[in-house]
């Protein structure tokens, strides 16, 4: 992992996002005026983001917010990796991004126009802006990446799955450089209403800053967030030949399906268990090697309880565990990519980011730091789970 680019509710750019998460600074979650008619209308937005301020204005007007996020994050990641698209062989550069539902902001806007004004007033850019694959197409065009390009959709594990797929394709010599990660911009009325109807969202409208509280007994649901994380992956020998020191190494990937229920995780956690086991085998590691876990930790009563029980069972040596969703909210399809980046940065700096809003831990026997904690560790896990029972786990190493 030679390059990292982030846009999150914790800040624009990797430096701002990581500092906010590392320090456990509460940045979320103001009541969103556009969602005032919906119960539990909390959200975590990328602060002060305007696509036309970060991209060519014409390109910004022709792309949905989810694509704009990815383009800006990718540009930062490429620069961080010390790469110049003018110098690379585009045929050996690939794009593998994760996303859940494409440009829903555009869809909802154009559906309203269709209903109120008629079909002739629907934008001809509706499909180019909203289709999920367009983010890979636009990024390939922007950076001249003519190798394989694709979008992976596994709901809230999309980002983790995309990184795993990218790593495998890189190992198979399909690429020399791969831009991977995920992007999401689903803070829209229809999506928030849908999550609200499922009972998945926090109702702490009276306490927005305290609404996302993973592993806390008082949790009552997640807060919907937006953002993007893009990583540059290369083979180690290629990076070293360029004189680049990687941030971290993606050494293992595991994925599984619960085959149980479309929205509820398996009560025994067997799907996540299988993904963890696969990631450890791929990394040639054992559970005792794990020094930190970036948990899925959504702040929902069911997920956190099951995940905590699974981690306690599988990692009895008690490594520190944290969910950065206490700061960022739940970034849905982009969560895994952004959390993989945070895990890599934690390894690089040897510091564990805290669990925010954790005042009454459940369970009490896990090591859940509430302040930034200096910690020596060489291997970490980053966990994701999703509607549809799709689980994904990355093993990320310091060396």
TrEMBL record:
Transferase as UniProt keyword: yes
One example GO MF annotation: 3-oxoacyl-[acyl-carrier-protein] synthase activity
Superkingdom of the source species: Bacteria
Keywords per UniProt: Transferase
Gene3D superfamilies from the UniProt entry: 3.40.47.10
Ketosynthase family 3 (KS3) domain ranges (all copies): 1-398
Protein name: Beta-ketoacyl-[acyl-carrier-protein] synthase family protein
Organism: Actinomadura rudentiformis
